[in-house]
Design goal:
There is one protein chain. A two-stranded parallel sheet has the order 1-2. The longest helix is centred in the middle third of the chain and has 30 residues, at about 105-135. The chain is elongated, with a radius of gyration of 19 Å. It contains seven helices and two strands. It is mainly α. It starts with 10 loop residues before the first helix and ends with a strand. It has one domain (about 10-205).
């Protein structure tokens, strides 16, 4: 029997918090310049790794949605990406943020952006789990005791050969994917600003 005294976490709070966090980080993104611009091949390596991480984040979110779409807050999903961590959507969102930092060519920005997103999503996951524990009781406690919250344990992976997914949920996730893909041209625009304007910058690693 569901415990109705605990309501599902309002995802608008997560979205608003992420937006505010990005705005707070924006001056650091714009007014810092990578110390790795020379030699050029080293900065290019950062960019390539960053793009790969962003694409991994997008594809990983789609992978997770295939399993959770239409089931969120209704079932405890334990297979596919949910067999290696309890919040794979947040895992891949963090990977995307790390990729953006890498595209900017800065270890510091990678750590700041990745750490900031991870902290926000970890707090969100904790709030969500209060509802899930109230809703599913011992079934969720058993799942949580075995599977880590966000950082994956790949040795736990298991999945059926087929999965049923919700088309409308997958379509909505497309918009989230476009947000992550927009980080690629945004990073290129920041690089353009650094190379073609006289804005004051300070160099960070």
């Amino acid at each position: 029997m569901a415990n109705t005294s605990v309501a599902p976490f309002d995802q608008r709070i997560r979205i608003a918090t992420l937006r505010v966090s990005f705005l707070l980080a924006l001056p650091l993104i714009i007014f810092t310049r990578s110390a790795w611009l020379e030699p050029g091949w080293f900065f290019d390596l950062f960019e390539v790794v960053g793009i790969m991480l962003i694409i991994t984040g997008v594809l990983g979110r789609f992978w997770a949605i295939l399993y959770i779409g239409g089931h969120k807050n209704h079932d405890v999903i334990r297979v596919g990406p949910y067999s290696i961590c309890r919040h794979p959507l947040y895992l891949f969102s963090t990977i995307g943020a790390l990729g953006f930092g890498m595209m900017l060519g800065s270890v510091v920005l990678t750590a700041v952006l990745g750490g900031l997103i991870f902290a926000v999503l970890s707090a969100t996951a904790a709030r969500e789990e209060a509802f899930l524990r109230a809703e599913f009781g011992a079934a969720y406690d058993k799942y949580a005791a075995r599977v880590p919250r966000i950082w994956p344990r790949f040795s736990l992976y298991n999945s059926p050969e087929t999965a049923v997914f919700n088309v409308s949920t997958l379509r909505r996730n497309l918009m989230d994917a476009l947000v992550f893909l927009a980080l690629i041209p945004l990073a290129e625009f920041v690089e353009f600003l650094h190379e073609s304007t006289s804005l004051p910058f300070f160099v960070i690693w």
